[in-house]
Amino acid sequence: MRARGGKDLYRQAAEVLASRRNAVALTGAGISVESGIPAFRGSQGMWERFDPAEYATIGAFLENPAKVWEMLSEMLDLLVRASPNPAHRGLAEMERMGILRSVITQNVDGLHQSAGSRKVIEYHGNPLELVCIHCWKRYPSLEKIGERIPPRCACGKILKPDIVFFGEPIPWIAQEDSETEARECSVLLVVGTSAQVMPASGIPRIAKEHGAFIIEINPEETSLTEKITDIHLQGRASLAMERLMETLRNGAA
Ligand code: NAD
Ligand code: ZN
Question: Which CATH number describes the domain made up of 1-37+84-124+170-253?
Answer without folding.
Answer: 3.40.50.1220
